[in-house]
Amino acid sequence: MGRRIAIVEDEAAIRANYSEAFARQGYEVAAYADRPGALAAFRGRLPDLAIIDVGLGDEPEGGFTLCSELRALSQRVPIIFLTARDSDFDVVSGLRLGADDYLTKDISLPHLLARVAALFRRLDVLADSTPREELLEREDLHLDISRLTASWRGEAVPLTLTEFWMVHTLARHPGHVKSRDQLMADAKLVVDDGTITSHVKRIRKKFAMLDPDFDRIESVYGAGYRWKAA
Q1: Whole-angstrom distance between the N-terminal and C-terminal Cα of the chain?
Q2: Of 142, 152, 167, 138, the residue nearest 229 (C-alpha)
């Protein structure tokens, strides 16, 4: 079978529709109707990617809770929120909890399949990195590309797949400004500007938890972001 995708959706018809669409693409699909069932399954076997609705049964924010629980099990499993809730507050909340993408249910199936394929391509690119690129070091930053792990001054930074790829893209060329469009292209992202901004804020917060003086990721007004050399 192909990669295993977990779909957590409380509406049976929608769950079946998504499951069928991904199965037709060769994915192995595991579908769950509620948070407890999905969490129990994740503890036994992690999926390769999870698609989660925000409202699950009698838990209006059960998807947010499940995202946090899955992130406690793995920082690297890609997570996509797929929900009818489209407020800026919900989008930011989802990204702050560690989701890689936040989509609304009016998205077409081909577009959804493309977003999932893009996440898997980023995993493949990292896995296929040449030996000389397995470790990227920039002063206090160490990125192990083969293991998808990051550390700052010897302490682990719990980055998600998207966050790791963005830090890698910026740190490869310190001082070079990456526009949001370039950052999306280089990091194989298919998201909007607001999502990029939310991810950068979350990345900075994670580094600042280890080092309150962390200032390596600079915003360049009207241009984008860059990794500042020491």
Answers
A1: 47
A2: 138
In the numeric block, the tokens 């009818």 are attached to 84
Do residues 113 and 21 touch, judged by C-beta distance below 8 A? yes
The token pair at 44 is 């036994």
* Whether residue 131 has pLDDT greater than 50: no
What count of Cα atoms within 13 Å lies in the side-chain half-sphere of residue 173?
Answer: 8
118 token code pair: 């893009």
Q: Are 44 and 72 spatial neighbours (Cβ–Cβ below 8 Å)?
A: no
Per-residue pLDDT at 61 exceeds 80: yes
The distance of Cα 80 from the centroid of its chain, to the nearest Å, equals 7
Distance CA 130, CA 134 (A): 7
Number of domains in the chain: 2
- For 12, the 3-state DSSP assignment is helix
- With tokens 């999905």, the residue in question is 38
Integer-rounded Cα radius of gyration of the chain: 18
The H or E element spanning position 219 is strand 217-220
Given a contact cutoff of 8 angstroms between Cβ atoms, the answer to whether 122 and 159 are in contact is no
Query: pLDDT digits over 80-93, tens only?
Result: 999 888 777 777 77
The answer to whether 230 and 139 are in contact (CB under 8 A) is yes
Entry field: residues in the chain? 230
> For residue 35, what are the domain limits?
4-127
**Beta strands 49-52 and 101-104, pairing class:** unpaired
Asked if residue 102 and residue 26 are part of one domain, the reply reads: yes
